[in-house]
Every structure is written in structure tokens, then in C-alpha cells.
Write a structure and sequence with these properties.
Spore Coat Polysaccharide Biosynthesis Protein SpsA, Chain A; UDP N-Acetylglucosamine Acyltransferase, domain 1; 2 domains; 10-stranded mixed beta sheet; 8-stranded mixed beta sheet; 29 strands; 19% helix; elongated
Length: 340
């Protein structure tokens, strides 16, 4: 089985962390997010995948130069220009010569969706395309997908006002597509699968959707990126094998003073945590330093950033790579420190 993983976005909601690192390469409890996605696909029989790259493509290629991620063979398809979702799918599929049923996933979504079940549903309904659906409380940020009782999609409503949404079932970012879908996508320019391709397929009555109560999380904001890490700490992904101390994970190459207090914290490699530090619901990315007496809550500290002594941060601060927060700083709210 072959798959296309869409990783072309710039991750603007996670800036400044994503100025130099694509969001799919940000670590979740020490493991790059993209590897978590690949492990799930591999568990459902995906053997070959195409990474549809646009933003900072070299970061992926340099990290996996042997064209293997989690045991899956990888082809790198670098867009010549931004092509949007459908354009990226067509470009990647053409580049890799995909001519059979294939799976598409968004590389910034964590899920334990039963892809095998979705594929079986697709084939049993003789669909041209099938979308995985997920129920959410507020569907206004997503594509909403009303269906008939047997799963045929009636419409594809992109980001409706909350009080006008016909259902709370949203497009969960995992699709099964037949090669014929590619013929509906213009060969050049930007094309949105949500706004152009799916509505066209719905009009043909060849688009189906399957609802599922699987774990699902869009990791694109600081809050959901933190939540993704904490869900892994709690074993929500079903494959948690990290060694925890007091509900927190500490990389073996980190240095943490014995007087520090950690709760729901992720401390990655080469981090240094000083005396009497308090870390609660925090992610420290590789090489981050939190000096003596600092308190950090519900925040992300970027690679090689330094939080000065006796500072109080959070919620929800995002400190970019190599930024130095002055000692005794007091920061809270939607604080973003660091530029390009």
C-alpha cells in the first residue's frame, strides 16, 4: 500500500518554532512528529510513501537521507511552487508514479485511526474517494461533511459558522483515493481538495465518508502541540514506551537538578534544568536551559533557548530557538519570543 503525506505548510500558528524547523519535524516526547505518523501508517501495511514537500524540504531530506522513515520507503516530492492540497497530491502522485488506490494523510495530525478499516469501507462502497470523519465540539475551523445513512457524502462545507454547521463531523485529514481522482485536479496551479476536488466528487456521488471515534489531534497550535506531548505521556497513542518520572519524561542526556519540581514536563536531550525550578505542563526542546529558581507553566521553550533565573513564564509562552529570556522576567498570555 502506498501513501502521500502532506507536509508542505509553513506552520505559521507555531511560530517562532517553525521559522527554522517544519512543524512535522518538531519532536513529540523526543521523537519527530513525522515518525509518529509513519509508525501508524506502517502498522496498517503502508510500505511506500511520498512526502509532499514545500516548506524547508531540506530539513526532511537531511534527517532521513536513506529514504527510510519508520521502516517505510520514502520518496521526496518537492513542489516547484505552492500548489495547495489537491495540487500537492497530484504533483506527488505523478512524481512517484502512483497508479493504484492510495492513502493521503496530513502530516500534522496525530491519530490512531484504523486505516485498514477505512480502506475496507472504501472498497466495499466502490468509492472513488473516502474521507475519515471525526466528531468535534466546534466544527467552524474545519471542513464539515454531512452524509447519507450509508456514508455517501452530500456536501463538503468548508469552515462554516458554528451555528450553521449541518453536522459536527469534520474532515479528519485521512483519505483513500483512486487514481481517477487525479484527473479532476488541474495539472498546474493551486487547487484545494477541500474546496474544489471533494465538492466535485460529491456532485458525482462517488465520495464517501466513514465516521470513527479514534484518537485525533490537529497539532498546529501551541496548545495542541503541548497536548500532543502530554497525550503521549499518558499513553493515549497506545504505543507509549517511554520511562517516566512523576509523570514527566527526561531524556537521558538532560541534566536536571535534584531540587527541581516537574509535573507533566518533557525535557529533551541536552537540556539543563537548574535548582528549585518548577516545570508544569511544559516542553523543553533540545538544548534548552532553565536557570535556577525559574517557574515555567504551559509553555514551550525552543532549542537552545535560555530562561533566565527567577523568571515566571506561562501560560502560554513560546520561546524560539536560541532566545535568551532575561532573569526575573514575568511573561504570560500569547507570548511569542524570537524571529526568523
Amino acid at each position: 500500500m502506498k501513501s502521500i503525506i502532506l507536509v508542505g505548510g509553513e506552520g505559521t500558528r507555531l511560530r517562532p518554532l517553525t521559522y527554522a524547523t517544519p512543524k512535522q519535524m518538531l519532536p513529540l516526547v523526543g521523537v519527530p512528529m513525522i515518525e509518529c505518523v509513519f509508525k501508524t501508517l506502517a502498522s496498517h501495511g503502508v510500505t511506500d510513501a511520498v512526502l509532499s514537500l514545500g516548506y524547508l524540504p531540506d530539513r526532511f531530506i537531511q534527517a532521513y537521507p536513506d529514504n527510510q522513515i519508520a521502516g517505510v520507503s520514502v520518496t521526496y516530492a518537492v513542489e516547484p511552487e505552492p500548489l495547495d492540497t489537491a495540487g500537492a497530491i497530484r504533483f506527488a502522485a505523478t512524481f512517484a508514479g502512483i497508479d493504484e488506490t492510495f492513502i493521503v494523510v496530513n502530516g500534522d495530525v496525530l491519530t490512531d485511526l484504523n486505516v485498514t478499516k477505512l480502506l475496507a469501507f472504501h472498497r466495499s462502497h466502490e468509492a472513488e474517494a473516502t474521507i475519515a470523519l471525526h466528531a468535534v465540539e466546534d466544527p467552524s475551523r474545519f471542513g464539515v461533511v454531512p452524509t447519507t445513512a450509508n456514508g455517501q457524502v452530500l456536501a463538503f462545507v468548508e469552515k462554516p459558522p458554528r451555528d450553521e454547521a449541518p453536522t459536527n463531523l469534520i474532515n479528519a485529514g485521512t483519505y483513500v483515493l483512486e487514481p481517477s481522482v487525479l484527473d479532476l485536479i488541474a495539472p498546474t496551479g493551486r487547487v484545494s481538495i477541500e474546496r474544489a476536488t471533494f465538492p466535485a466528487l460529491a456532485a458525482k456521488k462517488s465520495l464517501f465518508a466513514m465516521a470513527d471515534d479514534a484518537y485525533w489531534l490537529d497539532t498546529g497550535t501551541p496548545q495542541t502541540y503541548l497536548q500532543a506531548n502530554f497525550d503521549i505521556l499518558e499513553g493515549r497513542d497506545g504505543k507509549h514506551d517511554q520511562v517516566l518520572t512523576d509523570g514527566s519524561w527526561r531524556h537521558e542526556r538532560s541534566q536536571i537538578d535534584a531540587s527541581a519540581t516537574l509535573h507533566h514536563a518533557v525535557v529533551d536531550r541536552d537540556c539543563i534544568v537548574g535548582a528549585n525550578v518548577v516545570l508544569e505542563n511544559v516542553v523543553l526542546l533540545p538544548g534548552a536551559v532553565v536557570e535556577d529558581g525559574a517557574q515555567v507553566r504551559s509553555s514551550i521553550i525552543g532549542p537552545e533557548a535560555v530562561v533566565g533565573s527567577y523568571s515566571i513564564l506561562g501560560p502560554t509562552c513560546v520561546v524560539g530557538a536560541k532566545v535568551h529570556v532575561e532573569p526575573e522576567s514575568i511573561l504570560s498570555g500569547d507570548v511569542r519570543l524570537g524571529g526568523v
